[in-house]
Design brief:
single chain, about 400 residues, mainly alpha, Growth Hormone, Chain: A, 18 helices, MFS, transmembrane, transmembrane transporter activity, MFS_trans_sf, Major facilitator superfamily (MFS) profile domain-containing protein
Length: about 400
């Protein structure tokens, strides 16, 4: 029999390894068939994998790790899907709001999942957690199947006024059956894209603390009981979700700053703000457990300003090629999460506050460096390689965004 503590780094890391393996095959499928069919497939797979998790766990840790890897493959192209939806459905004037809502899936899923898991685990045993989540996954997949369309032009609930708003200022998009020829060379050599990916590394190294290690920190370091830790661990995620929504609205409505300066401002709030509070936390002795736990929430919450920063910059620069750019973003973030699954455990072998002080200072340094690079080189206007493709989109000119 195995326990989660000594195996936790492998258990978490293998999920991100699965994501890395699945990114490009699933993105190729997305480019050919669009987000509607792609999400149906990965939602169905997620339902099956989650529902059978207790069975595979009963066979032993190697089987559990294998299924965990397959789960990672199944969620490998979330960011490319977000990019595809943004390209097809988001008006340029509402790009900040769309980004904040779509990238809030991490926080929202944990906020919903944590209390459900706690209730089911305490009252019906841990296998019930997976059975309930499997049912939820099937319901969500069914809702997506019935109500989402690849093309707003063909959605029964979208009128001509909304279509005009969605299309304003955007290059016509080809159908999923006549996919754009992606200028990979220009994308990979684009400085604004490179600095976005650098910011992604800083962002998700810290985000992993929220989604993976914060609960462990509360229980193993601050010695809080599991119930209290579970409740406190959701609070920074709630704060992140609220800040994401507010940031999305403000980013779209602020007019006294240029789009580029808005990206700089919000990214600096997220990164420099979080770095400052990580330094504060590193030098506050954890005698008052609750105070220390609350102080540790603040830098995590500050990351919620990121939709107005690197996230928005990438979409504004890449435009119709956002899915391709966000495929690379997905690879970078998963590589960061995979590495972070080993970095934090290696720095905290004894789970002491002194060891976690080094983690917090590392986070602060990474955030300062990555944000400084971003604010110097970031852009917020369409790249030249997005404009060069307009003349080859005659099919898109005729049909708009096809299904």
């Amino acid at each position: 029999m195995f326990t989660i503590k000594p195996c936790s780094n492998v258990f978490f890391a293998v999920l991100f390894l699965g994501v890395l393996v699945g990114i490009f095959p699933l993105t190729a499928f997305l480019q050919s068939y669009g987000p509607h069919q792609t999400v149906i497939i990965i939602g169905t797979c997620s339902t099956i994998f989650t529902g059978t998790m207790p069975f595979w766990a009963s066979l032993g840790f190697p089987y559990l790790v294998t299924l965990r890897f397959l789960q990672g493959v199944g969620i490998a192209n979330v960011f490319p899907i977000i990019g595809s939806i943004m390209t097809r459905w988001a008006a340029l004037s509402e790009s900040g709001l769309f980004i904040s809502l779509l990238t809030g899936y991490i926080q929202l899923s944990i906020i919903i999942s944590a209390p459900i898991s706690g209730f089911c685990g305490l009252n019906y045993g841990w296998p019930s957690i997976y059975y309930v989540h499997s049912v939820l996954a099937s319901v969500i997949t069914l809702i997506w199947t019935l109500f989402f369309r690849n093309n707003p032009f063909k959605h029964p609930f979208v009128g001509e006024k909304e279509i005009r708003k969605i299309s304003t200022g955007k290059a016509p998009i080809t159908s999923v059956k006549a996919a754009l020829k992606v200028p990979y060379k220009q994308i990979f050599t684009s400085v604004p894209m490179i600095v976005v990916w650098i910011a992604v590394m800083g962002n998700f190294l810290v985000t992993q603390f929220s989604i993976t290690f914060y609960n462990m920190y509360l229980v193993w370091v601050l010695k809080l009981d599991v119930e209290t830790a579970g409740f406190l661990a959701t609070l920074p995620l709630v704060a992140q979700l609220v800040l994401k929504f507010v940031t999305g609205l403000l980013s779209d409505r602020i007019t006294f700053l240029s789009e580029r300066n808005k990206c700089r401002f919000f990214n600096s709030l997220a990164f420099y703000g979080a770095a400052f509070f990580f330094v504060v936390v590193a030098f506050v002795h954890p005698e008052d457990k609750i105070l220390c736990a609350i102080l540790t929430m603040i830098p995590q919450a500050m990351i919620g300003f990121n939709p107005g920063g690197f996230n928005k910059s990438s979409v504004l620069v890449a435009r119709q090629f956002s899915p391709a750019v966000l495929t690379v973003t997905q690879a970078v973030l998963c590589s960061t999460l995979f590495a972070g699954s080993f970095i934090v455990p290696s720095l905290t072998p004894n789970n002491t506050f002194a060891e976690y002080r080094n983690v917090f200072l590392l986070y602060a340094v990474v955030l300062v460096v990555t944000n400084t690079i971003f604010i110097i080189f970031c852009r917020a206007e369409a790249a030249e390689w997005t404009k060069e493709m307009k003349e080859v989109q005659s099919e898109g000119d005729k049909v708009g965004v096809a299904a």
